[in-house]
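Why does residue order matter? Because the sequence determines the fold. Keep that principle in mind as you read this record.
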Amino acid sequence: MAPVGTGRIVTLSALLLACPLTVPPASASPADTVTAVSMAGAGKAAPAARARAAFTANLVARQSDRCLAVAAGSTRDGAAVIQWDCGPQPDQLWRLVSLGGGYYHVRPSHSNKCLSVADGSTRNGAFVIQWQCGAQLDQQWKLVQRTDGFFALVARHSVKCLSVYRGSSHNGASAIQWNCGAQYDQQWKLA
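Structure:
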């Protein structure tokens, strides 16, 4: 799988930092004006009318180099989320939709449901599933920068990290939540 291109990294960084965009003063250089004007509309809409910032990526586990996927490409509520060999499957392509405050809904593109913690559990080892999107805190994930371009995804309700069960590198290993640490099975590359 090819690494994320430079242009996409800049866009991704802007989304992750949720930087406000403003039109520069008249004294700004022409280069500043072109950049700001081309993006000026993003910060000007009323909050209710503003489209939510979103981007799409594969989530690749550092310890296995496998992609986060929905088991068997299921579209049903409660379907397990696992790791699997990366490929062109739509159940491995995730749309991250900004909710504000650094949190995202993480949605598999094939079902448009949300990455959720089963039963809203706060315990270590709780399974991560897909479920109809709503306002539940177990569906809100924060991207936290780690080393070498990797991220942790931290569940808002539990402050635990998206992890792979027992750090497995095998296809079909379940996604779970676990206390955040430096383990590679909690580090994800956006590709």
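Confidence is low (pLDDT under 50) at residues 1-49.
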